[in-house]
């Protein structure tokens, strides 16, 4: 995506022929791991352990709780977010319209990929540093209003649907738009995002960001896989599975996970030799084909998961229409697994390049951050066996954790008589996701 002189492929090693693990072995091993995991769960995990977030966890170290819960810490994070945002605006407005401008790396690598890794390790990072939240709070303070309370109440029926549309707009710009690295186009996208967020915050208050900010929703979902949580105001350490179980079942949640999963799958598919030959021999433009394929991938991901979830039996107090939202939290580990598998080398290599270029934002030979001489090592490119293992393990572990989360939720939703056979439709969908995901990953 951000190719430049001396830069390896954005997603690391090449196609299947370059991988030391055969596609057949990887797929069969991954499917076997998922099926065996399910079998073990059925035998040994017969009661829900994380239903409704009842697993509180253990208190974090007192000094860590005190520091992270202090006003000074929260203000420092807000200042950090604003400094990064102002720097990004600076390079976007005054920087060169070329791929050497760090703006592209900040936008596509640090923001999109780095935010995921940071959230998985530290918790809801974007909520803590979001510049649009900070600006909205500043405007509210000047006007004497409460940033948590807007002019209107955010409609419950909207849920995460605006966030799903925002995420789709981002992946469309990155994967289907003709000029994803044209400075004017990316600046316009950012301007629209900031404008919509500020208007939404003024009208609906901070609840708008919790539900509708695509990056806050994305970051907060991935943060559920971190070991950190606040329970009754206290910082605790607990199982990511316990955190996952607390994801609210809101309208649009299935659309969010479908966009994230489907777009990552399309990104792999778009690099396959099959797709390259398809658009080279097609009578229509690649732009049209990419747009149709991206939409199809997201729709198919959402439809398959929704059908698999809806086919599972449920107690009388939960409708089949509600079931996909109840199980949607289980897709989050799969999303993180694919992000690691697909974007790890992009983040390390191009992210390092971005750090070097950020020290000379206008291309004038500056070294304002002292990082101008930093260069990526491309270590994974020279160790394809290690990278292949990391990719496969990330996908397999993501699916196994997803199976555990879905099984635990199923035990609280399924009637007693169906607690084994009732899970088979969803298991079939996850097996399909595992095999299809590895096939796409290896064909890229």
Protein model, in words:
With 444 residues, this protein is mainly α. It has one domain (16-443). It has helices at 23-44, 62-68, 71-94, 102-122, 125-129, 131-143, 161-175, 183-204, 206-212, 214-223, 240-244, 253-269, 273-281, 286-310, 323-327, 332-358, 379-382, 384-413, 424-443, and strands spanning 58-59, 228-231, 234-237. The chain has a three-stranded antiparallel beta sheet, covered by helices on one side. The chain is globular.
Brief synopsis:
With 444 residues, the protein is an all-alpha fold. The chain has helices at residues 23-44, 62-68, 71-94, 102-122, 125-129, 131-143, 161-175, 183-204, 206-212, 214-223, 240-244, 253-269, 273-281, 286-310, 323-327, 332-358, 379-382, 384-413, 424-443, and strands at residues 58-59, 228-231, 234-237. The chain is 65% helix and 2% strand.
